[in-house]
Amino acid sequence: MSDKINVMIVEDQAMPRQLFEVIIKAQPKFNLTVSIDNAAIADICCARHAVDLVLMDVVTKNGASGLVAAEKIKAQNKKVKIIIVTSMPECSYVERAKKIGVEGFWYKDFSVEPILTIIERVLSGESVYPDDVPEIQLGLAKSGEMTARELEVLREMTGGFTNAEIAEKLGYKNHSGVLKRIRKIGQAYEAYTGVDYGFEGSKITG
């Protein structure tokens, strides 16, 4: 590594990306080399800008996978250190990150340690992962009862995207697959509130 540590941020949500940028820029030893919203080009940017450390969201713009990007980066340069950041409590992400060789994993909404502490620990040679996957309550359903795909759909729903847009972002041929997953999430919420929002049966059509 050079005198300064070159950092790349891969995050499609504006507020977290800006927060990471502020944190990195405030540290004299870091150089914010590139900040992008799409993991699909992360490996190219990483090689072009001689990146030393990557903060990588799990799911980015157009549904591009941060884990796929991390695997590509590690394939071209194992020395690059990667920290996966996510707000999605899904155990399969942790397992895959470990298999890829990612050095750190941080939950945006649940981790006790601040991201800067995780960065320092990773740079010192530690492999930093949470002891447990946090579980959140979604009506009567818990996040641990949902698949990674359902959690991805839920994330896009909270972003205000239409069913057709979610289908396109996540690679569905049409939005019927999205509707199936929305029904499961919605039915759990209906059971919790006691209110019929139309998630049962064929009431949801698009």
Concise summary:
With 206 residues, the protein is an alpha/beta fold. The protein is 42% helix and 16% strand.
Comma- or semicolon-separated keywords:
206 residues; alpha/beta; five-stranded parallel sheet; two-stranded antiparallel ribbon; 8 helices; 7 strands; disordered C terminus
| SS field, number of helical segments | 8
- Main sheet record: 5 strands, parallel
The main sheet orders its strands as 2-1-3-4-5
Strand segment tally: 7
Instruction: Kindly estimate the percentage of residues that lie in beta strands according to DSSP.
Output: 15-25%
Mean pLDDT metric: 80
Distance between the termini: 51 Å
**What is the SS-derived class?**
alpha/beta
Helix content: 40-55%
Shape: globular
Q: In terms of per-residue confidence, which ranges show pLDDT below 50 for 5 or more consecutive residues?
A: 136-140, 201-206
Multimeric organization: single chain
Topology:
Elements: E1 5-10, H1 14-25, E2 30-36, H2 42-48, E3 53-57, H3 66-76, E4 81-86, H4 91-100, E5 104-107, H5 115-123, E6 137-138, E7 141-142, H6 148-158, H7 163-170, H8 176-193
Parallel strand pairs: 1-2, 1-3, 3-4, 4-5
Antiparallel strand pairs: 6-7
